[in-house]
Amino acid sequence: MNIRQLRYFISIVDQGSVSSAARVLHIAQPALSQHIANLEEELTTDLLVRSSRGVKPTKAGEVLYQHARKIVAQIKQATDDVRKEADTPRGEVSIVVPPMLGVHVAPLLLERITGKYPEVDLRIMEELGLRVKEMIENGRVDLGILATREQSPKAEYLHLYSEPLFLVSKRRPDDPVCNGLETVDVERLFSVPLVLSQQSHAVREMIEDAAEKWGGP
Length: 217
Description:
The protein is built from eight helices and five strands, in the order αααββαβαβαβαα. By secondary structure, the protein is mainly α. It has three domains: about 5-85, Arc Repressor Mutant, subunit A; about 90-145, Periplasmic binding protein-like II (D-Maltodextrin-Binding Protein, domain 2), CATH 3.40.190; about 165-215, no CATH class. Helix 1 (about 5-15) packs across helix 2. It is rod-shaped.
């Protein structure tokens, strides 16, 4: 006796006909009849009463039918449970973010991920932008968030959002850069001394790349 035979037997009883069950199961009727004959031989009893109007289970067949339905249902449940368990993300996931983002992003990540994936142990670290990029490329962390326009072939990137950069200066009438302007051209930007973040910061890297491209200091 095997699960296939039980499924075939259930279908025959439900359909009330071997031919109808064969159509539903997409199996040749003689082959289906042979499966049931083998089952009856193994159990040494008739399972179906055959007539011109179809088939009905015998008393022994009714007992087998009830057990078969439970067995098939339990196997399906076991399969679903195992697949669900296998599909449930679990284990440690490491994410590195720049300090300025970490203040805002870390609490949101913890809330969303632990709520949706309770089996995941989330580890959040803070590093400056270039260090974030290095840790991702070297495989030291699973994920990272950083400000960048250049994409390394050593990592996969997903754009999350864009944000503007602001040039801040003291308000004065003779301001050569910001006076009365909503946006600042790159050439004008590099006409004055700039106070930037430290060299390992991703935003500074982008500004230095722009300076090199546009001939800034």
